[in-house]
């Protein structure tokens, strides 16, 4: 098993190191990750700047991976197209510092990287760990749980391009109840912005770190995670609304306009 590991917290993130240690029990793991934090980068890619790449080594000079001056999706694209000496069997993104449940899936650089892996017809998995209210997150514990879930997914022989989103609850909150396969909650979070004034008198806004889901809906990733379940959600990146597509294909499109119907001068 050859695994490409990436994230959106950056190549020096403790969550990446913890997940690397656990995934190494499943096979060969190579890291291609952003050089700096790219949280909420979504599935954006870099177009107008070069993607600088350098090898990263630990204090003992052991190779850790490649750092890319780009987005998480850039890392996966570049890894598969150029950097890796082999085509991976699996793409894993994480483990993220903070959950990626509900509508946040659409903002997540962690999920964006996994989606990019699915573009290459590779089974791809995003992994995130809910942050505790206080104290450091248990990345080793969260990574151990995530790897157990990944191992179970692999035993089911996922099809090329299958995409999964795993969220691990805050481990300091109590015992894990188990695993639930649930849909993504689509309710918009309530956010707040702190209005400030800079030294030059210019007004700016800074989004707050806390947000709540006003309509969590039972039996979704948001509620199950809050109830101390590990959540697994199968995702897809085809955004076509097929029910509307079928109806709209019957519409008649009126393009009557003088610009199209008047005769051309002879």
Keywords:
globular, 7 helices, 9-stranded mixed β-sheet, single chain, alpha/beta, two-stranded antiparallel sheet, 266 residues, Stationary-phase Survival Protein Sure Homolog, Chain: A
Q: Tally the helices: what do you get?
A: 7
Task: Determine the mean pLDDT.
Answer: 93
Shape, principal axes of CA atoms: globular
State the name of the first-level CATH class.
Alpha Beta
From the N-terminal CA to the C-terminal CA, the straight-line distance is 70 Å
Instruction: Indicate how many domains the architecture comprises.
Output: 1
Q: What is the CATH architecture descriptor?
A: 3-Layer(aba) Sandwich
Spatially, the strands of the biggest sheet line up as 3-4-2-1-5-6-7-11-8
Named CATH topology = Stationary-phase Survival Protein Sure Homolog, Chain: A
Helix content: 25-40%
Spans of at least 5 consecutive residues whose pLDDT stays below 50 are none
Overall SS class = alpha/beta
* Oligomerization: single chain
Order of helices and strands: EHEEEHEHEHEEEEHEHH
Cα radius of gyration in angstroms: 22 Å
How would a textbook summarize the main sheet?
Answer: 9 strands, mixed
Protein model, in words:
With 266 residues, this protein is an alpha/beta fold. It has a single domain, classed as Stationary-phase Survival Protein Sure Homolog, Chain: A. Helices cover 25% and strands 23% of the residues. The chain is built from 7 helices and 11 strands. It has helices spanning 14-23, 72-83, 109-119, 139-155, 221-226, 242-248, 258-261, and strands spanning 2-6, 28-34, 53-57, 63-68, 90-97, 124-129, 163-168, 179-181, 193-197, 203-207, 230-235. The chain has a 9-stranded mixed β-sheet with strand order 3-4-2-1-5-6-7-11-8, sandwiched between helices. A two-stranded antiparallel sheet has the order 9-10. α4 links the parallel β6 and β7. The termini are far apart. The model has no long low-confidence stretch (mean pLDDT 93).
């Amino acid at each position: 098993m050859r695994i490409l590991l990436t994230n959106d917290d950056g190549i020096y993130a403790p969550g990446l190191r913890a997940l690397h240690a656990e995934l190494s029990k499943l096979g060969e793991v190579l890291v291609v990750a952003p050089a700096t934090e790219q949280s909420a980068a979504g599935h954006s890619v870099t177009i107008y700047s070069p993607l600088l790449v350098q090898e990263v080594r630990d204090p003992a000079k052991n190779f850790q991976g490649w750092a890319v001056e780009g987005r998480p999706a850039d890392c996966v694209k570049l890894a598969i197209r150029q950097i890796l000496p082999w085509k991976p069997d699996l793409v894993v993104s994480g483990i993220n510092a903070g959950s990626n449940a509900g509508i946040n899936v659409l903002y997540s650089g962690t999920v964006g990287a996994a989606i990019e892996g699915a573009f290459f017809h590779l089974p791809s998995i995003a992994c995130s760990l809910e942050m505790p209210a206080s104290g450091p997150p248990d990345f080793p514990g969260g990574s151990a749980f995530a790897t157990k879930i990944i191992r179970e997914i692999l035993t089911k022989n996922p099809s090329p391009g299958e995409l999964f989103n795993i969220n691990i609850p805050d481990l300091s909150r109590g015992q894990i109840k188990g695993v639930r396969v649930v849909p993504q909650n689509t309710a918009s979070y309530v956010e707040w912005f702190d209005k400030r004034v800079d030294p030059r008198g210019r007004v700016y806004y800074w989004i707050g770190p806390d947000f709540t889901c006003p309509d969590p809906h039972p039996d979704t990733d948001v509620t199950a995670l809050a109830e101390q379940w590990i959540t697994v959600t199968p995702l897809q990146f085809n955004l076509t609304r097929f029910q509307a597509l079928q109806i709209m294909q019957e519409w008649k499109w009126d393009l009557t306009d003088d610009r199209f119907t008047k005769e051309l001068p002879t």
